[in-house]
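Minutes, project check-in
Item: structure for the 77-residue chain
Input as provided by the requester:
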Amino acid sequence: MYNIPTRIASNAPQSPLERQLIIDFLKEKGYQPEDLKRLPRKKSKELMSQACTFASLRLAEIEARSKFRRKTHFEDR
């Protein structure tokens, strides 16, 4: 149910990284992506919500670091 990416999300350049961050989050909580199908819907939805929030924040952090590095790199010249 939750492991099927939407067409829009699967075309985004950060999709593989986002998907891996979600999988890593679930593993850290003791779950595999396929375990979500066996959990009660409420629990599954809550875990995916937390995983997506985590992935979103990590992607934002990575993007911010990248922009900061580019900015400081070009200011040094």
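Outcome recorded: The longest helix spans residues 41-75.
No further action items on this chain.
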